[in-house]
Design brief:
Elements (H helix, E strand, L loop, with lengths): L1 H26 L4 H20 L8 H14 L1
Helix pairs in contact: 1-2, 1-3
Length: about 70
């Protein structure tokens, strides 16, 4: 379950930073924190890609979310 946690963490951070980026642009502020979080999320996603045994496909993303949620609930 190594790369699944990284994939989920990077995906959630990327989604949240997108919302923060949009909010900052609407308010007319510089999106510095959002840009930093995008870079961190990108690094985590690259680490997940490198740590995976086989090449990842789009079908692996929902499976990773289910695996991580199931591990948290158990």
């Amino acid at each position: 379950m190594g790369f699944e946690v990284l994939l989920v963490t990077g995906g959630v951070l990327a989604g949240l930073s997108g919302i923060s980026l949009l909010h900052a642009l609407i308010e007319g502020r510089r999106p510095l924190v959002a840009a930093l979080v995008v870079m961190i999320a990108s690094g985590i996603l690259v680490m997940a890609l490198l740590k995976a045994d086989a090449p990842l496909t789009w079908r692996d993303v929902p499976d990773a979310f289910v695996t991580v949620i199931a591990a948290i609930l158990n």
